[in-house]
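Researcher: Go.
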Amino acid sequence: MHRCSVPVCLLKNILIREAGKFSIIEGAIDGCKNMCPVGRYGDETGKASLIDACPYACPAGKYGSDVGTTNINAACPNSCKQGSYGSSTAGSNENIACGQKCPK
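Model: Structure:
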């Protein structure tokens, strides 16, 4: 589980966000706001929108449960179990990521 912190610093009055986080409102300092959602991740700092800060999604058949992740291993550590598969990306749990059963 991701622990919340205040992931900002002010540099010449510009709000800088850590990777895996973004800021829509300059001056917002709540470390739990605007983190990459479950199933998405990003590795660049200073982004102001979800799509820019969290451009990568868990691939089909992979899923995770943490927010604010910065790499695929942290965002998508789980794979579909044998006998199931999925075709959607950005899976947030097994049912979503692996909702299809292999034919017998």
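Model: Confidence is low (pLDDT under 50) at residues 1-15, 27-32.
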